[in-house]
Queue: 2 jobs
Job 1
Amino acid sequence: MNSQITFHTIREAAWLLGVSRAAVSRAIRTRELRATRCRSGLRVSSTELARLLGSRQTGGAA
């Protein structure tokens, strides 16, 4: 089993979530979505995206 975490740009995260880049940035600002600061900007982990998608399916807000 591969347990390596991948990180996505804001643009990639928005595409994967099916929302705008502004919505992803807003979710990071409001701490609904956790991001990691990298040298070239913010990155969102694949596990964080999975957590957010799971909460959407169970009725949580995005």
Note: The first strand starts at residue 7 and ends at 8.
Job 2
Amino acid sequence: MKFNKLIALITAILLCFMASGCGKGAESEVSEEVDNSGQEITLLNIKSEVSSQLEELAAQYKAETGITVNVISVQSGVDAQATLKGYYLSDQMPDIIACEASGFENWDGLLVDLSDQNWASRTDAAYSDSTYGVIGFPYTTEAIGLAYNADILNKAGIDPATITGPESMKAAFETLDSKKSELGLTAVIGYCAEPTEVGWSAGNHIMGAYIDSGLARTDTTYIDLLNNGGQFDEERINAYAEMIGLFNQYSDSAVLTQPAYNDQVLGFASGKYAFVTQGSWIGATMTGDDSDAYAAAGNFEVGMLPYAFQDGMDTILTSAPSWWAVIKEGDVETSKAFLQWCSEDSAQQILVEKAGFVSPFKDCKYVASDPFAKVISSYISAGKTSNWHWMNMPEGLGQNGFSFAFFNYASGTTDAAGFVQELKDIATEWYSKL
């Protein structure tokens, strides 16, 4: 982690050539004159489902520049910010860290302003702070919605376009449940409400549907209400609770209250569920680790519905799920150069075609083969997306707080009214301690 002035000077010269419009030919010429062997930076990855693809990205960067990028992957369900704090306290902080929106406050004043970087002008998805400037590099766009198997819905005679509110959603679930045997379904939906290892799913992502479904991207009505001491809109939260109750009723019991994220995704990839409560990131697993199961199920077309717990909700939730940020105490210039490279052609090809990311960069020419890529693009082009304002909840409230209310509701300990009351109690207590 010690800053090497000589290496920084060499890297700065390289960046100067790149910024002055010398193009790839000049970049190659400089690279041939500079021996980068032995130079290393470290990147923290909090998306374990694409660990192998990021290792390939690092290998490509080393092949092109001679610089080693060590990728440290945090496994799903592990508190990434707690892991980072451990690295910081032991003076082993990565050069490039990963942060969700609520995580940036942990590193107040410790991150590099990247506003002057070329890539920052080519995306609308950078993370900006009013005090510190652009401090987050976006590497993908993801979507949260009710994912579905289009083949199964078609066989059941259900047009997904007709599922536009709570009654039509309930009717679709009832129809699918009555046809489980002929459709080869284990359950109508794979929904996991286990709080300890998969608490981020219900506590953050699905809770996000209450906060943002049906709203314009700039509408902060319900996150503002929540952040004002833990308040909820009564009509909205009660309707939302009814939808969660529907998921409890029709979910696969084997994953409902168990730490079974992998089984949940595999069940959907295998065609055992018509719906699954995971976002677009599972596409990388379906075409990667679970590709055999997905192929055996016919490589079915997927879609994504809005979490329409009230009539007329017609948006899915999209955002960069997290960002890469450069630590001031690390190898800043080399880290900047790596992020710039990540926004360009050879890196974008790996991130899009191999990792299945939907590029946040306007000039990217690659389209992911990920099953959900076209789904996200269609919602974006139609202007039917809401934001991820759940990331503006206090850190840990969703994953370590609200998730237990979802679990108790799924376990049958509480009913819909009890679920709503528990959410209120958790929020009130959480905000009282801030």
Note: The longest strand covers residues 40-45.
